[in-house]
Amino acid sequence: MSEKDKEILEDAVNENIGTNEENVQESTGQENAGQENTEPTNEEKLQKELDEANEKIAMLEDRYLRQIAEFDNYRKRTMKEKAELIKNGGERTIEAILPVLDDFERALSNMAKDENAAEAMKGVELIYNKFTGILKQNGLQKIETEGADFDTDYHEAIAMVPAFEESQKGKVLDCIQSGYMLNDKVIRHAKVAVGE
User: Fold this and answer.
1) 91-195: CATH number
2) Residues in contact with 162: Cβ distance below 8 Å, sequence separation at least 6, in sequence order
3) Secondary structure E strands in 20-81
4) How far apart are CA 139 and CA 87, in angstroms?
């Protein structure tokens, strides 16, 4: 209740206009109750504004934290993609070179059968070793198949061969085409014959 209202009330009580003191107190209580229901006080208004501001701050803070997390995830993802691109950037080129590597291996195996080609074989072996050395420096690894257990992650079975011994079942018995990995990623599965 404002100061002005208090003064008016005191004047009315002092003059004792038409009511006794109890009636005055009841009526002022009713007036106050009516004023509280219709008009909020300054404190209530300020409290309501403060609550709304705190809600808005909490909402904006939540949005801000989510955007920071989203940006951080984006940054990590792009860095990972960039690292993968750098690591395996030459994958297509190396895949295109693999048939040449196969030809080198076939040439060496055929030259080994011919006694007259011993000198030429030494030259081809030097070129082959240099070529494979450069490919190894760039992350290329040959998938080893000799005596290995058949693994679909590295091998592709193109034939099932009867095993002579029980220990050969499920093992790679022959490699038809070599498989290769580039930086721990299979770029060509080894084509093999598996014992059954």
Assistant:
1) 2.30.22.10
2) 195, 196
3) none
4) 9
